[in-house]
Amino acid sequence: MKGPTRAFILVTLFVCSTTLAGCTDGAMGGSSEDTTTEAQKMLPEWEVGDQWLYTFITPQFGEDSARLVVAEIDEGEGLYQLGISSEREAQRHAVINHNPFLGRVTMDGLSVYENGEPQQVFSFPWTVGDSWSFTLLGQEWTATTNSITNGNARVTAVSSEGHELSYTFSGGKSFMENFVWIDDEGVRQLRMDLNVARTGYSGDVFFYRARDLLDSLYEENDQEIYDTFIDEGHPNDGDWDTLVWYLDVEIASAGAASGSLSMKDHAGASPLTRAWGAGATEKGAIGTIPSNSGEYSLTVTVRGPDSFIHLRVAGAQVFEYTL
Hints:
The chain is mostly beta strands and about 325 residues long. It is about 10% helix and about 55% strand.
């Protein structure tokens, strides 16, 4: 009897492994049944100290990680203030809109602000097939909820200029699981991936409320280039606390190629000067300089084929919270 019994067991195991793969998969991975609850489809409520640790990936800065944190709640205005644990990330957002989810977020829909207006990036309660529009990252988007499984609502959006968004909102974690922006040339401009969601953040949180003052690309020219911009402060809330600058530079490798940049404020101070030789690059450099209301002048030289200097400057009011 031992032989036939052993053969029967082997045949049973073979059938399970070849025709009923779920015998093994079910034990390891659990049920594939959708576990979404009605509560996970609804608008979440945030508390001060709620935090989400994200990995950010961009062409300019590569990969970095920082926590988005609920720094303050204004019940009267119906707003959350969302800051970030990295001051450098706050500066990047100020000058190149690196992270559109920093700053004010409405309590009634988690709408984020662009050009001073709340934008409905999320559609609560989540419903498959819903479609809506909003402005973000300088684009007009039409979004659709494609699916909802296990508490995660998956959204895709397209713009009239050919850009694409895809993002997933986690009902269990009360914010985005991931967010990807691909431009009209197929370049991934931003990816955000959630690592962990927690409560009770302790530490410093930053937000730079900013407005663009200059965004200029200077290319090969045999003569000096002159430019100006005006620092007039925030249109409603007084002087800027600081100016944030961003540089993207590439100088040709030819022997005579070179580049230089000199910025002066109206008092004659030179808060930003740079010089580059042949073959030099400076990608995604960021820094701050004092805000001195009035006119700033620029003198730029760019020599060598395909050489360029891209300079951006933003005025910023700095908010720092200690939780």
